[in-house]
Write a structure and sequence with these properties.
Elements (H helix, E strand, L loop, with lengths): L11 H8 L19 H11 L29 H12 L8 H14 L3 E5 L1 H25 L18 E6 L12 E4 L18 E7 L2 E4 L10 E2 L14 H19 L5 H17 L12 H4 L25 H12 L5 H13 L7 H19 L10
Antiparallel strand pairs: 1-2, 2-6, 3-4, 4-5
Helix pairs in contact: 5-7, 6-7, 9-10
Length: about 400
């Protein structure tokens, strides 16, 4: 796989040395306890640094996070930062239903479950799609002439990829902040750059509230949050920039998951952005290879290496209470103990073997169904039926 475009100009030895270096101070891992990369992680680190489209990190650096909401201060010499955290959390009064506590409680929802996503503004999205289509045509033309797989002629450090305008889409308004509570966004943030005088502090905040799939200002006329450009201060400190293509892929999978689970509540804007993003992610994913070379045996239906074969039953087997037949249970049991599979595949097999395939029952649904059935029977007999306590 071709090297990452961010670091193509750098010597290969320096690139791999950077990838195999210990995590930085901003990484989530504990760099004090693991000063060296274990041998088992070297392949993973090499894949990260050779990631053609920055799929995993969005950067040339293996330890860079594409997005981080809460950055903990772990170093003993970061006392100033440690003091700023409680000051920022308590300066406006700390309430259980306030924004500060909501962010602390909801940051996993924000990070993991896609409460919101950032997509390129309409003009930039069109320009990016056109550039990707042109890159595909150039790649195909070169291949037909040379019958060789060249590096894609795509410079993601130049427009329209380097600094597009971003738009915010709120997918789960109820999970952003408590009802009626605004999210405060700084309007005039200033940064100190090495070699320049310290800027005058002039930070102002403006409150925004979720409205359908947008952020809108709290004051009249509730104008929507405008498209913005990300102020890239990492380059001033020698750190790699976040890849806009990685941000697009991140947004695509959030939108794709949302449409798969909540298509009935999707707004026209969400549907339009999801459909427009599919050609871009398909083009970005061309030539991408799974480094493990493995797919889940449960999803593909193929038998994993080293797992014992079982004869196919002549007639369909009846499912047990957990939704598994005897053959499926034995197959899962073998996969959970198969050392040829990775830890995630063994864990998935063990979880299905232990908990089955049926969804957990909802006691409230069962209670409602029982009450409805009782009322129907009572109605036929002429009694008043049962009504749950509404207090």
């Amino acid at each position: 796989m071709p090297p990452n475009p961010h670091i193509r100009a750098g010597p290969a030895d320096d690139v791999l040395a950077r990838a195999l270096a210990p995590p930085s101070e901003t990484a989530e891992t504990d760099s004090e306890l693991s000063p060296e990369v274990p041998a088992l992680k070297e392949l993973q680190q090499k894949f990260l640094v050779c990631d053609q489209r920055s799929f995993l990190t969005g950067s040339a650096s293996a330890d860079l996070q594409a997005a981080h909401i809460i950055n903990a201060a772990r170093k003993p010499n970061h006392q100033v930062r440690k003091m700023e955290v409680p000051t920022a959390s308590t300066s406006g009064g700390f309430l259980l239903d306030g924004p500060s506590n909501a962010i602390l409680c909801l940051h996993l929802q924000w990070n993991t479950y896609g409460t919101f996503c950032f997509v390129p503004a309409e003009p930039d999205a069109k320009a990016i799609l056109d550039a990707l289509r042109q890159s595909d045509r150039d790649w195909k033309k070169h291949y037909e002439a040379t019958h060789d797989f060249p590096v894609r002629p795509l410079d993601i450090t130049a427009p329209p990829f380097d600094n597009p305008h971003w738009d915010v889409i709120i997918l789960h308004p109820h999970a952003l902040l408590p009802d009626g509570q605004p999210i405060l966004i700084s309007q005039t943030r200033t940064f100190y750059l090495p070699g320049q005088p310290v800027p005058e502090p002039g930070l102002s905040w403006k409150g925004w509230i979720p409205s359908v799939d947008r952020l809108c200002s709290m004051s009249e006329p509730h104008e929507p949050f405008p498209p913005f450009t990300a102020q890239d201060v990492r380059k001033h400190f020698g750190h790699p920039s976040v890849s806009s293509l990685a941000m697009i892929i991140n947004a695509h999978w959030k939108l794709d998951h949302f449409m798969g689970e909540h298509a009935g509540s999707a707004t026209p804007r969400v549907k339009n952005r999801r459909s427009r993003g599919q050609p871009a992610t398909a083009s970005l994913g061309a030539g991408h290879v799974d480094p493990s070379g493995e797919t889940s045996a449960l999803s593909s239906g193929s038998r994993p290496s080293g797992a014992p074969e079982f004869e196919t039953p002549e007639a369909p087997e009846d499912e047990d209470e957990d939704g598994l037949t005897n053959t499926e249970f034995r197959l899962l049991s073998a996969q959970a103990r198969d050392l040829a599979l990775d830890s995630r595949q063994r864990a998935n097999a063990a979880m299905i073997m232990l908990f089955g395939t049926h969804q957990p029952t909802n006691p409230y649904v069962e209670r409602t169904q029982a009450i409805d059935a009782f009322n129907n029977m009572s109605g036929e007999s002429g009694s008043g039926g049962y009504h749950p306590d509404q207090s």
